[in-house]
Write a structure and sequence with these properties.
Elements (H helix, E strand, L loop, with lengths): L8 H11 L7 E5 L8 E6 L2 E7 L12 H10 L10 E5 L9 E5 L19 H16 L3 H4 L10 H16 L5 H12 L9 E3 L8 E3 L6 E4 L6 E3 L1 H9 L27 H12 L7 H24 L14 H15 L1
Antiparallel strand pairs: 1-2, 2-3, 3-5, 4-5, 6-9, 7-8
Length: 342
């Protein structure tokens, strides 16, 4: 099994000089240390900086790591209100670096990992949350037909399909029995809210560290990591982001706001954030909020389990992947607490 950090730089350079207009070598490639799924690299060449995202090498779960879908969606969003990197080239020839990859622009900005924004002045923090809220609404407001994404997801009940998908993914990467996951696998399909017909583009992993902010102000210049994007219910995205209000602050790999005094720190509450979203989207009231949250904790637990399994197999993108083993139960237990509140 190949090392995810190894690339044949000479072969890649020759390929890009042939297939990417304006590209000029020599080049060097350095892997970004963070990120759990599709390995991402900074390409520094004589012609400038670019970013390469590839499928991991080795045996992969079906439908996972679809870099072609990522390339398609960021290409489609180029002329919309959703800030994205510029998509330049998709390579579907495994012989170049060992797996499919695509090239996009390098966006110089800031990535934050702690949702409490500890290094920022208290008075500045809410503006960053408001910008996250604005851009999430922009994603959910994309005219699918106008940008050619009407067929970007399957028709029918989104949650039914997603629960089935992530149950299968979880079972394929299960290492130990987790009782709370077994209970969720049983409870979620039986408690899906009636389909209200709402369908939008959804990012699927809309969280703080997948947003690149302007170097100096609360403005998002690029939403990245579109691997899990599809057509689905917009409240799935909203509730996914709102998980951070309940996740433990010091949980491995994924920082939350659990135990943080939001008001004292100048941060919006979950209720504040949801209210701002509803105002922007013209929604009067959200029913079944705990279902949406529980669904996303289940989904996150399945994702984390997959990362952990890849670390055991020696095929994970991040060096932190092995520390995520305990997170599956932590996250699933939060979901059980939510459904018991119902």
């Amino acid at each position: 099994m190949g090392n995810v950090a190894e690339l044949d730089e000479k072969r890649l350079c020759a390929y890009l000089e042939t297939h990417l207009e304006g590209f000029k070598g020599p080049l060097t490639v350095q892997k970004f240390k963070d990120g759990q799924s599709n390995p991402t690299f900074l390409v520094e060449a004589a012609s400038g900086r670019l970013v390469l995202r590839r499928k991991p090498p080795g045996s992969l779960l079906k439908s996972a790591h679809a870099v072609d879908r990522e390339f398609r969606v960021i290409s489609a969003l180029a002329e919309t209100d959703v800030p994205v990197a510029t998509a330049y080239h998709l390579c579907q020839d495994d012989s170049i670096i060992g797996s499919w990859f695509y090239i996009m622009s390098y966006e110089a900005g800031r990535i934050f990992w702690d949702p409490a924004f500890p290094d920022m002045e208290r008075s500045e923090r809410k503006a960053y949350y408001d910008e996250m809220n604005r851009v999430l609404c922009a994603i959910h407001s994309v005219d699918l037909a106008a940008v050619g994404l009407s067929d970007y997801g399957k028709p029918g009940n989104y949650f039914e399909r997603q629960i089935s998908r992530w149950t299968s993914q979880y079972k394929a990467s299960e290492t130990d029995r987790v009782d709370s996951m077994e209970r969720l696998i049983e409870w979620l399909p039986e408690n899906i809210p009636a389909d209200d017909g709402k369908v939008s583009l959804i990012h699927g992993d809309y969280r703080l560290d997948n947003l690149i902010f302007h170097p100096e102000k609360p403005e998002i210049i690029a939403v990245v990591d579109w691997e899990l994007s599809t057509l689905g219910h917009p409240l799935a995205d909203l509730s996914y982001q709102c998980m951070q209000w309940r996740l433990p602050q010091n949980s491995p790999g994924i920082k939350g706001l659990g135990g943080v005094d939001r008001v004292a720190q100048g941060l919006p509450t979950e209720e504040d954030y949801v209210k701002a979203y509803c105002q922007r989207m013209g929604i009067e009231k959200i029913e079944n909020w705990n279902f949406y949250l529980a669904f996303n904790y289940f989904r996150l637990a399945a994702i984390v389990q997959g990362v952990y399994k890849r670390s055991l197999d020696g095929n994970a993108s991040s060096t932190q992947a092995g520390s995520l083993g305990a997170m599956t139960k932590i996250v699933a237990d939060i979901a059980i607490h939510l459904i018991e509140e119902e």
